[in-house]
Amino acid sequence: MTVRFEPGEALEIDQWILELRAHTGIRWDKAEAVRELLRMARTPDSILRDALTSRAQRASA
Hints:
The chain is mainly alpha-helical and 61 residues long. The protein is built from 3 helices and no strands. The protein has helices at residues 7-24, 30-41, 47-60. The radius of gyration is 14 Å and the shape is globular.
């Protein structure tokens, strides 16, 4: 899978990954963060899945 970001998004994501590392003490890379977000979105009671669904419904309206 390839994920492409806009230049401004890429900088924001890099900063977010650095903050995640600082808060957790774990050396995350972008691929690990994306995999974990997708795992979280697939859980049955996922708030993330619900948020993605709502965003998709607003975008298609």
